[in-house]
Amino acid sequence: MSDIETFRQAIESFISSRGWTPTRFGREIAGDPLFVFDLREGREPRTETRQRIAKAMQTHEISMDALGRPLRIGIAGLGTVGAALINILNNDGDAIARKLGRRIVVSAVSARSRHRERGVSIDEFAWFDDPVALAKSPDVDLFVELVGGEDGPALASVSAALERGCPVITANKALLARHGVALAAMAEKNGAQLGFEAAVAGGIPVIKTLREGLGSSSITRVYGIMNGTCNYILTRMGAESISFEECLKDAQELGYAESDPTFDIEGFDTAHKLAILTSLCFGTEIAADQVFVEGIARITQADIKVAADLGYKIKLLGMAQKRADGIEQRVHPTLVRKTSSIAGVDGVLNAVALETNHVQELLLAGPGAGGEATAASVLSDILDIARGTHVPPLGVPTDDLVPCTRAPMRVHEGGYYIRLNARDVPGALAAIATRMGEGSISLESVIQRPDLRASEPGVEQETSRTVVLITHETIESAVREALNRIASDGFIVGQPQLIRIEEF
Ligand SMILES: NC(=O)c1ccc[n+]([C@@H]2O[C@H](COP(=O)([O-])OP(=O)(O)OC[C@H]3O[C@@H](n4cnc5c(N)ncnc54)[C@H](OP(=O)(O)O)[C@@H]3O)[C@@H](O)[C@H]2O)c1
Fold first, then answer.
1. In this structure, which CATH number among 1.25.40.10, 1.10.287.110, 3.40.50.300, 3.30.360.10 belongs to the domain 215-367?
2. Which of 18, 46, 199, 398 would disulfide-bridge 185, Cβ 3.0–4.6 Å?
3. What is the tens place of the pLDDT at every residue in 411-448?
4. Which CA distances in Å does 59 have to 3, 29, 34, 55?
């Protein structure tokens, strides 16, 4: 047998004994995915290349033998996050194995279409049409759900894995916001872990920080920017004086916003993430349906400009804090001082701020979405599970969670920015001020901006002027009542704009 034939057989036997594909050998050992195919076709590598490969195979053989049994993962969902996860595992496989002392191998995958181009090869993995069958497969030690959706295949497959005691990792905030407590209870009952680092603020390790990083600290307030689409739109409106609609269109073209952006811009996505954080912060059940939600679609250039002149930026914030009458969970556009840390978080970035009894403010900022950043969070959960880390999914056992009692928004106290289109008639301003006074609302400033024309439909530009009121701390119900009275007096046109002010 020729020298080159012996070399080829050694490679074939290495590949088959490990269940590798020729492409993987080429990629991980030879540095050329087509190497084995070329060799099979009789193309001889240079002596130095052969020596380098023989040495790499030897090192690999030894390091593989030293490692424990591989952890076999099954991935359902091979879209933005799923494909990025496979890519990271391909590229960092050896480094991960060295860190863990065992290999992570993808044993099987599932998606809708088997033959879609995904930028990563899935040929070497077993294929399942049905994510539930994948979750039940005895060849899967850890199930990763990256399908999305609050019910359907995501819920069915995650439940199937947990029922058989198989650990689960998911990036699915919609699923957790709705079924998180039931799934956490199922995980506890069956002795399985449930990881969801990627579900809130993508690449920012906020779940681990809350669950394991804060020691005995108790959290007094959590707030943050948790939707990159909204933050991108508001940042661009601030930087370039363009309308909400134009920014949204750009965000869609750049892939930062979905073709149907409702879920993001109306604040529901932030509400899901906030509800998960609230549970971890305050030991309550997840109650996404009790979050007060307002989106950013009504923010105009007039608001952005007046806010900027007053030293503020407008951000879509999710906030939760304990009050005497329950838990306040709210998502709405918010005026924040330009000098605050949260105001510096611009573009598609996300940030979560935690205030505890020991730390005044801990701000975690970074990429809130994107395949690679999100997959990196999924991977950090995989590593935790592979190491055997076991913590209750929601920080405390589900039996110890308390119901999340909603603190009513009408008694929320804070400062308010109110923009009105006041009719350009004598007495209009005086009437508005009177109504505010009747509600015991003290005004910090009244700003008239005839240069900022209203942009709402039905508002006649020539006969109204933009008036902005900034209130001192007051009660939400008083502001709403005053605005109702002002509207019925007939001195304003269109809908008043009301934005809450938060001092951090
Ligand atoms: N993208 C992000 O930046 C990001 C950030 C944080 C969290 N997440 C969360 O991560 C999850 C995945 O997001 P993604 O952006 O990767 O979604 P995506 O790109 O839309 O991918 C979804 C994947 O699920 C598969 N799928 C859909 N329905 C299925 C079914 N019935 N059976 C089997 N497979 C099915 C799709 O298959 P086909 O490819 O064959 O159509 C696709 O591979 C979601 O829960 C999302 O909220 C995403």
1. 3.30.360.10
2. 398
3. 999 999 999 999 988 999 999 999 999 999 999 999 98
4. 21, 10, 21, 6
